[in-house]
Recover the amino acids of this structure.
């Protein structure tokens, strides 16, 4: 359906036969017993904000969003080039330059800090597993990073682990996401909203990709386009 898998992004038309444009944001936890935030936008408006646990719960929410939905996930979905796995005892971990991906190095040069994929191996394994399951269901998920989206758009991006910080972020994002009236939203739910917002910007042609097609791409706001008449 919609998305980018390593290589070329296939951006759909603004509307599909008059149907609503649906974007699903998933702030994926590394393990199933921790909270995964899920947000669903319909024509840019927040239609659902919830949490999931297991892979099956995450996949069910994405599937319920319907055919033609764009799914954006906050998690590494690919491995660094040269890595056959992310196991600590595998010889591939000793190859130079295989701790991080090109997209992470590009983000660092842009002043957007992130952790190398090799340091997020638990999350990366689950991200790859969930992405594969979504592809089996006809989706082509986007890899996104809500911190990068907020920072590049000039929105508050710090303090989400405190209620005060979450309120500040929520107020800023609310201007771009109608319907975001959830004063008790968790940090993972707020990140899911930003993931869905990034998917919406991608649908509107207001993003760009960082990374290598053969290794994995991340979708981030194309700031001049994303900032122009957003919302």
């Amino acid at each position: 359906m919609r998305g980018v898998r390593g290589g070329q992004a296939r951006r759909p038309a603004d509307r599909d036969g008059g149907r609503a444009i649906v974007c699903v944001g998933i702030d994926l936890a590394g393990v199933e017993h921790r909270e995964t935030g899920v947000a669903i936008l319909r024509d840019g408006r927040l239609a659902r904000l919830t949490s999931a646990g297991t892979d099956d719960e995450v996949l069910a929410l994405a599937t319920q969003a319907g055919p033609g939905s764009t799914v954006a996930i906050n998690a590494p979905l690919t491995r660094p080039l040269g890595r056959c796995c992310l196991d600590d005892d595998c010889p591939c971990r000793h190859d130079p330059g295989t701790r991080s991906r090109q997209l992470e190095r590009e983000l660092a040069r842009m002043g957007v800090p992130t952790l190398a994929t090799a340091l997020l191996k638990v999350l990366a394994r689950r991200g790859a597993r969930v992405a594969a399951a979504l592809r089996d269901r006809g989706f082509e998920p986007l890899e996104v990073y809500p911190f990068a989206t907020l920072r590049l758009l000039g929105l508050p991006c710090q303090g989400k682990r405190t209620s005060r910080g979450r309120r500040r972020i929520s107020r800023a994002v609310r201007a771009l996401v109608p319907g975001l009236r959830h004063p008790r939203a968790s940090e993972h739910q707020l990140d899911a909203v930003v993931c869905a917002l990034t998917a919406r910007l991608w649908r509107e042609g207001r993003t760009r990709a960082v990374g290598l097609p053969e290794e994995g791409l991340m979708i981030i706001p194309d700031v001049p386009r994303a900032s122009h008449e957003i919302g």
